[in-house]
Each structure stands twice: as structure tokens, then as C-alpha cells.
């Protein structure tokens, strides 16, 4: 017969367990969001060669790069909240482009304006 962890611990232990579960869940969501936006950026780059892209495509790409920078920032912040301070592993594992790393941070309300 298995014992349920929550019934044999103090209320603080149960709360700590639930907080750890939520941190792990949020970390997974942030990682998947980063993967998705990086995939969009790679697909865009494959469909629009840089030298030949019209101005509208260049603007769309800048927006994708900023979205990726925001997703990266969210993931790094969540990892740090979980105690994982070294983000070099993220950059290698997710193959994050340098330009995305450079614009890592919160998105401003005027995200459609030119940089």
C-alpha cells in the first residue's frame, strides 16, 4: 500500500512540495515557449534569405527576434528562481542565436516599432 506524501508531513512540507511542483511546471512551460519561438525564427530564416528579404520581412524578423529574447528572458528568470544560475547550458542546448541573447529581456509595449 502506497502512502500519500501529503498525509504524513507537516503543512509546511506539503506547501513546499506544491511550490516545487509549480516551479517545475513553470520551468517546463517556459522551456517549451522558448523552443516554439526559436523554431518560428528558424523557419522564417529558412523561408526568407537575409540578403533578399524585403523591408516588411526584415521587420517581421526583428519582431520574432524580440519575441525570442523575451521567451529566453522568461526561461532564464524561471531557472534562476529554481536555483539554476548558469544560463550557458540554455544557450548551448537550445542553440540560441547571439542576436536573441543580446535582446534578452522584457518586451516593451511598443514591440512593433523599429529598434
Secondary structure: number of strands: 0
User: What is the count of distinct domains?
Assistant: 1
Order of helices and strands: HHHH
Unreliable spans are none
CA-to-CA gap between the ends? Answer: 61 Å
Largest sheet: none
**Helix-strand makeup class:** mainly alpha
Gyration radius, rounded: 19 Å
Number of helices: 4
Indicate the percent of residues in helices.
55-70%
Shape: elongated
Strand content: under 5%
Mean pLDDT: 86
Description:
The protein is an all-alpha fold and 115 residues long. The protein has one domain. Helix content is 65%, strand content 0%. It is built from four helices and no strands. The protein has helices spanning 11-47, 55-81, 88-93, 98-102. It is elongated and about 65 Å long. The mean pLDDT is 86.
Amino acid at each position: 500500500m502506497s502512502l500519500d506524501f501529503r498525509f504524513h508531513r507537516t503543512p509546511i512540507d506539503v506547501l513546499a512540495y506544491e511550490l516545487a511542483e509549480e516551479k517545475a511546471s513553470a520551468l517546463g512551460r517556459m522551456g517549451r515557449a522558448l523552443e516554439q519561438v526559436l523554431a518560428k525564427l528558424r523557419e522564417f530564416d529558412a523561408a526568407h534569405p537575409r540578403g533578399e528579404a524585403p523591408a516588411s520581412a526584415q521587420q517581421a524578423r526583428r519582431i520574432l527576434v524580440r519575441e525570442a529574447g523575451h521567451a529566453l528572458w522568461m526561461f532564464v528568470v524561471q531557472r534562476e528562481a529554481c536555483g539554476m544560475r548558469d544560463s550557458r547550458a540554455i544557450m548551448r542546448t537550445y542553440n540560441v542565436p547571439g542576436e536573441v541573447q543580446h535582446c534578452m529581456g522584457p518586451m516593451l509595449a511598443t514591440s512593433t516599432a523599429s529598434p
